[in-house]
Amino acid sequence: MTTTIDRTPARAVTGARPGRGFRATLSSSVGFTLDFYDMYVAVFVAPVIATLFFPSDNKALSLAGAFSTLAATLLMRPIGAAVMGSIADRFGRRRAMILALFGVGAVTCTIGALPVEASAGVIAPVLLLVLRLAQGMFVGGVFASTLTMAIETVRPRWRGLVSGIVGGGGTTVGSVLASLALFLALQAFPGNQFAAWGWRAMFFAGGLPVVLSLVLVVFLEESPMWDRDANKTRRPVREVLGAHRKLMLLNMPVVFGIATHFLLTLGFLPTYLQVVNHLPPVTVSGLLVVVNLLTLAFGPLVGHLSQLYGRKRVMIAVAVLNTIALPVLFHLLAGLNGPQALVPVAVVTVAMSCLSVGAFGPMPVFLNQRFPTAVRASGVALSINFSFALAGLVPTLVNAWSGGVANLTTFVMGALVIGGLATVGGLLAVPEPARDLD
């Protein structure tokens, strides 16, 4: 079935009521933050998870086991995108958001109650894997609903800024909250107590953002664009994979590169700083809180620049910069060891964070522009989640193929170059949309 696009100007269906765009942006940002809080917590406690659930004499293999559960979440995301994206397109962004946020929060809290390998044997990593797969299903819904709700609701001139607030801001705030949770947990559960209870407390704390986000969504109005185009197609996923398949495939290398850079910098840094730079966990958590607060505005800034100077132009410039700068920064970071190098480590990590967050800023609105309203949630969610599923394998492969800490930096640098080239190539190939949003 081919979607009929209503050519009613976007301005006529957005911002109809005072504060509507603000509420949509706030709700979407909190929802996106919750998703990345869960991801960051899982990454921050990866060394502990590796020891408790995947014990091994080879630290690299143990870490690979821990990161494989994160990869499982990402691999499940395309299925979640298909299911939850279809719900968002057929029954509304708001309903999909409520279901997805509740699911993400429930799984996050349940992970904190899992038994470990020493007490439950092989069933412990199996249960962890099952929950991470379930998390992927719900996270696919978070991407399907939050990234469309805000962009469709705000006025056209604010879409770049809002894209940066939700995409770049959500990732950064998620990291700040997870870093703060890690810092507080390390203070409350020092030494061996952290391995017993501290990591669990961090997952339990994920229930607090869920309550806040659900309260916000309850008072949120449905997307005005979806209200206008509701029920224009009964099979949005089939239409995306059919009539819009080529466009989705062109989007994937763009997102793959951005996701690879994100997962190998902001996602992998907590582990890297401990394993390579030999910083204690409490120092890493405090450092990342400061780093992410300093880079909080960078996503919205780059998102707004894309509104002023064009999505592709700004995204290509950022991608080229990241492809060159991120490997160089990792090379510099590898030579900084111990607490005495804390200040230069902080400078390098701030630069990495700015570059990664900046790339995220325009991505939500860039993808929203690719698809008509009737299939937008499915198209955006599938484009992102297929790409994140592939990118999610990269940290695991880097850990496994490096064979140990000595070669880790070289493999990270190579993966960053490959990711950057994928984004640049995809952006050069994908056509500019004929208009902003239908």
Automatic annotation (TrEMBL):
Lineage top rank: taxon: Bacteria
GO cellular component: plasma membrane
Keyword check for Translocase: no
Membrane topology, record value: Multi-pass membrane protein
Entries under PROSITE patterns matching the protein: MFS (PS50850)
Transmembrane segments: 36-54, 60-84, 96-116, 122-149, 161-185, 197-220, 248-270, 282-302, 314-336, 342-367, 379-402, 408-430
Key word Transport present: yes
A Pfam family this chain is assigned to: MFS_1
Official protein name in the record: Na+/melibiose symporter-like transporter
Origin organism lineage: Bacteria, Bacillati, Actinomycetota, Actinomycetes, Pseudonocardiales
